[in-house]
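Structure tokens please, single chain.
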Amino acid sequence: MNENSIKTLSITELLGHNFYIPEYQRGYRWTKTNVSQLLEDIWEYRKKGIAKTYYCLQPVVVKKHIWKDIDGNSIEGFELIDGQQRLTTLHRIITYLTLEYLHNNLKSEGYTDNLYSIYYKTRLESKTFLETNEINCTKPDLYYMSEAYQCIKEWFENGDKGIPRQVKDEMLKIILPSISLNDKEEKETPEWSVQVIWYEVKDEQKKSEELFTRLNRGKIPLTSAELIKAKFVNSDSFKGMDEDDKIKRRTQLVQIWDEIENQLNNPKFWAFISNEKPDTYNNKIEYLFDIIAKKKPDERDPLFSFIHFFDEKETFDSLWKKWVEVEEIYRSLVYWYSNKNLYHKIGYLITTGISIGNLIKIKKENTKLKFEEEIDQLIADSIDDNWEELSYDKSSDHDKIIRVLLLINIELIRANNNSHEFFPFEMYKSITKSLEHIHAQNIEGINENKREEWFNWLRSHTNILLNVAIDKEKAEKIIKEVHSIDEKTYRYEEFKALSEKILKLIPSDDSNENDYLHTIQNMALLGLTENISLSNSVFEVKRKKIIEMDRSGAFIPLATKRIFLKYYASDNSRHYSVWTQHERDTYLDEIRDCIKLYKKTITVEEHEK
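Here you go.
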């Protein structure tokens, strides 16, 4: 069995190699912008001054190959399936430093060999041209190679980075570092270096052109997950083990790998463990590697986790421990997912931004009982101490209100021991969260420049007017007035006056709505699309719409559904179309009861201290 080989190599270790560019690839096409960016990135890496690190380029994908050069001589080396642009640019940089700084060849300077060679099947002259500082614009490849050289020369000699000679010397050390061996004949990593991820395809069944198409034309690059898998199943990674153990471990790893990938592709499971969209990862197991590698959300390097997952010198024992760690995280997630109590608590924490890495760390450091106490505390900490004073008219309070309402909707399901229902995180995360005023007997949010909003409001309110109006006769007159409107000439002032007439006919309780309009007892959680259709509608319009949405299968959080199905109304309530004071108080009490499970009640005296 020929496993693909993967490792990181410094550019020094590529010296003396021969690379072959077959006819299915286009020529060198990097612009001055691409070349400058590479130089700047390498220089920025060096300026950070973190010793024993390396600047890692994207994978170079190769396959052993034998071909004829321009004179018919047989050349042995590697077909360069992916990485032509990067290796050609590095070749140009080193050629510049060799010709115009060292004024000598690398071997004479003490390197083990001279610069690697790049042969082009359909552009035979390019190999020789690459090794010069000539300018030639007669053919596309030669033009871009000439432009790259000029760009490199200008970058080194403009003085922006400091004294040019010192910059050249420093860059040469980074790009072509000295490689030494320790007492065990093991390679010592240089203090700073540019390295490539060397991915050697050994599977003869894989056709190079098909792989090239996938990596380039299909825009599907090698991912951290694929590179990590190649490292795990590579026979070189299990040196020191007998052949039976190698096969056993690789087989076991591949089987569990597939199991993990299948489970993570379950939309419900994925939504429980991640706030990322399902299509964020080609291989979802990479999410677990990101956790172990402590990849930050704003990290731009797509191969960060591969680069930081493995230690500098891995043995088969340390590699296996790494894999066991992946399995342990996965098994923990599966257990949490299957346990109704932990599913809801941990699901809430992940949804509100607590990292799985942090949860795994807490699990490792505590007993089961202590672990749950710790996550209960995290839930408590996520809720504002003054949550009852949060107000919708403060935009800074919106996320805090959403957290409270999310927790309540989750708790109503978690605490119901008579139901096997689980909160649908996959549905919740597929909508844009929005806060809905339960009672909003005004048109403040209607856009006076969007006529369609006026007429939607009028239609929805006249549809319920006869059923709820205090004065049926006046209601009929207003309905006729709405039907007679010429929508083309109608003005906002007319809409505003008519809406006031309609609202006077719709019943409400005796409370002053300004006392509670923006408080949490008058807020419900919905998706944005539903919110757009309900904004500024009176309670009865919203109630009808919620029932209609529920029948059609839309996601309505449980507490929101209870509100509009009059769950909180008293038995003798006559205000079926009104969000009453009694209901607001009952709803608020239920929120308090849920939060008390996690957050100790703060007394008035304590609050005043």
